[in-house]
Structures are given as structure tokens and as C-alpha cells.
Amino acid sequence: MSTSREAFLVRVRAAQRVALREDDHPAPGARDPFALPPLPVFDTPAGDRTERFGTNLTTMGGELVALGDARELCEWLAERFPGVRPVSAAPEAAVAERIDVLRAPASLHDVDVGVVRARYGVAETGSVWLSEREYGVNALGYLVQHLVVLLDPRDIVDGLQDIYRKPDFAQARYAVLVTGPSATADIEGVLIRGAQGVRSLTVVLLPRD
User: Fold this and answer.
1) Helices H / strands E in the chain, number of each
2) In the CATH hierarchy, which top-level class contains the domain 49-205?
3) Which positions fall inside the LUD domain (predicted)?
4) Beta bridge partners of 87
5) Who's near 179: CB < 8 A, 6+ residues apart?
6) Are 99 and 89 in contact (CB under 8 A)?
7) What are the pLDDT digits (tens) for 153-188?
């Protein structure tokens, strides 16, 4: 026997027009379902994706570096952050401490440098896309002072619309688009970096192979 609450919800659903897309189904008792319009694929600017990515990244306060292999990466890390041992979720950073996925997120509060590898870059905004798989521990992308993001130039897509169509986006339990370092200018229009997150974000173009 249905309760009064269940009966009420059935009547509400029956009175609603239910939006459908692809394999979605209307609620029981719903009437007059209609399909949502298809998402258009917008035109993107012409030109090299990597160049557009770098331009937009630097506009948002990030830095772009191009390296050839893992050895160059280790040398660059030692030169850029002398005396500091980074914590890394990317195996290419052999000089770094490899993050344990079971590590307590709060324990990363005193880490100076974090290294991750982005799954995608977005030329339109200079953003990098990461999920729980890339971070290992999600807090690595927020509690460290300086974040180094490895990116294969072949993983740069044109626009945000392309990211939403990737199977990784649908399969991830957690996903984020990071665009430059943390920044705020709420108080008297003064730009402050690192107030709510990383102080610097450097994207290192480094092929996976």
C-alpha cells in the first residue's frame, strides 16, 4: 500500500514535463516527455592549440615550460625549487616523494611543491583537467604552495565543450578544471595570489612517452 507521500509524488511527477536525453527515461506516470536539444559543437579559433593554450595560461597567471624527458624534468625541479623535495602523483618526477593514495589530505598542508600530470589541457582557457586518478589525493592540488602540472601536448583539446564529451569526464568521481594559480582581487581591487590555494601554477609540456 502506498503512503500519502508516495501518492503525492506520483501526482507531481505525472504533472511534470520530463526532459530526456539519449538513454534517460521519464519518471513513472510522467506525461508529454520531450527531448532536450542537442549540444552544438562551437567553432574554435584557428591556429596551433599549444600556442593558444600557452597564451591563455599566462594570461591567467600561470607559467609554461617545455621539457624533453623525465631527466630534464628532475633537473628543472632541482633548479626551480632548490632544497625542496616535491610530493608527486606523477611517476616521471623521480626526485620527488611519491604520494600515497591513503595519505591523510590534511597532512599535505606543509608541502611546498606538488607534481601531477593532467589528463587534458584546454586551449580555449589555458586550463588543465584533472580527476581523482591524476591527483591521487585531491588535496594535493590545493594545499601545496606551488603546483607543477605535466601535460602532453597531444592531450590539449580546443575548448571546454570537448572536455565534456570525453569519457573520462563521465567516469570520474571527482574532476576539476584548473586555470592558473589561486587569485583574488575582492579587496580594493588588489590582486593577491595564493590566498585560497596554490601560489603558483606551472604547466610543463612533457610527452607521456
Assistant:
1) 7, 14
2) alpha beta
3) 108-206
4) 97, 114
5) 57, 60, 62, 125, 126, 127
6) yes
7) 999 999 999 998 898 988 899 999 999 998 888 888
